[in-house]
Design a protein that fits this description.
two-stranded antiparallel sheet, 9 helices, alpha/beta, 227 residues
Length: 227
């Protein structure tokens, strides 16, 4: 967790993310939703998005947030994290996190779950937030970002970047373990005004198409929270 742990006076819904990139990506996505919405503008302001740290910290840090002044007025707690290479495992880990903190355990991603005693509701999403049939896709925030680049020629550029990265690995005899990160940040480095940007900064500068249907499940989280 980064920074000071504070629940803002207007906050009724808390989203905890895996790292600063996710936090600021979703802050700017929420800002986009506010600008597009008349009916939910004020309600969206009731959502607070925070960085909870790495996956291994979720159970402990959710417990820390429960002790923060103002948590008693929270209506909904959401968690967003990468699926990595095991979406099913990520899903189970988040369910375990809620269960360990005596909160209702959603049965699937993006399903808001009510508490039997009328207490806090829960919901979670795993990135990239897409499905193949009934199976959630493995992947990360970077995989999602690569799919929603606003640049109309981004596919051509990513193909060239992929060729370049493959050539580098072949020529220098090593493997880039986080190829999705390498592709995205190579794209940033070749496109103004994103050079040197982190994901949240690129989101602020307009790198991503926040109207993309690929984001529909994450929009559902925000809309379900404030309904």
């Amino acid at each position: 967790m980064s920074g000071k742990t504070i629940i803002k006076s207007e906050t009724k819904h808390l989203i905890l993310c895996e790292g600063a990139d996710e936090k600021f990506f979703f802050i700017w996505y929420l800002d986009h939703l506010k600008k597009k919405s008349d009916s939910n503008y004020d309600k969206y302001n009731e959502i607070q998005i925070e960085d909870i740290g790495g996956n291994e910290d979720f159970v402990k840090q959710l417990g820390v947030w429960k002790l923060v002044a103002g948590f008693e007025k929270i209506k909904t707690v959401g968690i967003i994290r990468d699926a990595e290479s095991n979406a099913a495992g990520a899903l189970q880990a988040i369910q375990h996190c809620f269960s360990c903190n005596n909160m209702p355990e959603p049965q699937d991603c993006f399903e808001l779950t009510e508490s039997d005693d009328g207490g806090v509701r829960t919901v979670f999403g795993i990135l990239p937030g897409t499905k193949c049939g009934n199976i959630w896709d493995n992947g990360t925030l970077e995989d999602l970002c690569l799919k929603i680049l606003k640049d109309t020629r981004s596919s051509e550029k990513i193909n060239l970047i992929s060729e370049y990265l493959n050539q580098v690995q072949d020529d220098f005899k090593y493997t880039i373990n986080h190829i999705h990160k390498a592709k995205l940040h190579t794209y940033f480095s070749a496109n103004e005004p994103f050079i040197g940007s982190k994901i949240g900064e690129a989101a602020r500068y307009g790198a991503f198409d926040f109207e993309s249907d690929i984001l529909v499940n994450f929009k559902k989280i925000f809309d379900d929270m404030v309904r």
